[in-house]
Write a structure and sequence with these properties.
InterPro entries: Aldolase_TIM (IPR013785), BKACE (IPR008567). This is 3-keto-5-aminohexanoate cleavage protein. The chain contains eight helices and eight strands. The chain is α/β, with parallel strands linked by helices. α1 (22-34) runs parallel beside α2 (55-66).
């Protein structure tokens, strides 16, 4: 499984290649799926380009993407989109169009309640476990652990020289992950080293303009589709080398 992460918290300042409108996200998702992505992760945006959990914004984004692709589509529930835990929970409960899955960052306040509400509504939960946080410990003790769709192991170390070691430490901290599948990915300078580790470990991964604006050779990424194609090639090449 290779998930495409279309945009993340990036803005227009990151260039026109980052899709911000529902139409642009849908077009980018279609190209990425054609390039081999089997799942989509997206940050719905307001017209001003800010991440939003608004029912109207989420619905418009999901409907546009689903008009173009037939793979699962998930959204963020990051606290930066709605800092107040109670308000964030209310937003999710008021969604009129549901994603196939949603990421919940386990170190953020209100994560357990938010994940429970999503599961109750039939939405798969990606348990976001970030390196450098207490997310792994919290998740290990969570009664919801066996009920999540998968664990999203997020390596926040952006140094290409140390990101792989950070990823190995994160995986060790996550341990058995309540028996759930693990998707491993990095960001910025750590994106490609961590993706290669995912290949060697045979783990699901993701790539896209949320995680990096650069190709493996250091050149600028023109699109999510180009990143997905390169990501698949890098994953398979690493897989052939083993652990």
């Amino acid at each position: 499984m290779v998930q495409v992460c279309l945009n993340g918290a990036r803005t227009a300042a990151d260039g026109v290649r980052v899709p911000l409108s529902p139409e642009a996200m849908a077009a980018s998702a279609a190209e990425a799926v054609a390039a081999g992505a089997t799942d989509v992760h997206v940050h719905p945006k307001t017209p001003c380009g800010h991440d939003s959990l608004s029912p109207r914004v989420v619905a418009a984004t999901l409907e546009a993407i689903r008009d173009r692709v037939r793979v699962p589509v998930g959204v963020t529930t990051g606290a930066w989109a709605e800092p107040d835990p109670a308000a964030r929970l209310e937003r999710v409960r008021s969604w009129t169009v549901l994603p196939d899955h949603a990421s919940v960052n386990w170190h953020e306040p209100g994560a357990e309640e938010l994940a429970a509400a999503l599961i109750e509504r039939g939405v798969g939960v990606e348990a976001g476990i970030w390196s450098g946080t207490d997310g792994a410990a919290r998740f290990a003790a969570s009664p919801l652990g066996p009920k999540v769709l998968r664990v999203l192991a997020e390596v926040t170390d952006t140094d290409p020289a140390s990101a792989e070691a950070s990823a190995r430490a994160l995986l060790a901290g996550i341990g058995a992950a309540h028996g759930r599948p693990v998707l491993l990915h990095g960001e910025d300078g750590g994106a490609w080293p961590v993706l290669r580790l995912a290949g060697r470990r045979g783990l699901a991964t993701r790539i896209g303009l949320e995680d990096t604006l650069l190709m493996p050779d250091g050149g600028g990424a023109e699109s999510n589709a180009r990143l997905v194609a390169a990501g698949l090639a890098e994953w398979h090449a690493a897989r052939d080398t083993g652990n």
